[in-house]
Amino acid sequence: MKRYGSVIGVSMEKLEEYKKLHADVWPGVLAMIRECNIRNYSIYYHNGLLFSYYEYTGSDYAADMAKMAADPTTQKWWALCNPCQRPLAQRREGEWWAEAEEVFHTD
Prior knowledge:
By secondary structure, the chain is an alpha+beta fold.
C-alpha cells in the first residue's frame, strides 16, 4: 500500500458547489475509485486549498489511473469538478493536483 497526498487550489466562488458535489458523489464514481484500488480517500479544505489523501493498494498505479481517466462516468464527474479547481503553478508537468511529499507518518 502506498499513501498519496496532493494539493490544488479552489475557486472561492465555486467552493460551495464543490462541497455540494462531494456531499453526494455519484455511485459510479465511487465504484471506479474502488475498482482502481484507491482506499481511505479524503479531501480536506483550508484557506483556498484542497488537500487529498488516499491509499493505493494495487500493483500498477499508472494503469489504474489510465483506467479511471478513460471511464465515461468519471470524465463527466471531472467535467463538473474541474472548473471549481485551480491547479497550482508549482505542480509538475502533467499534474492537475500537485503531488505532496510525505514528510512524516506513524501508525
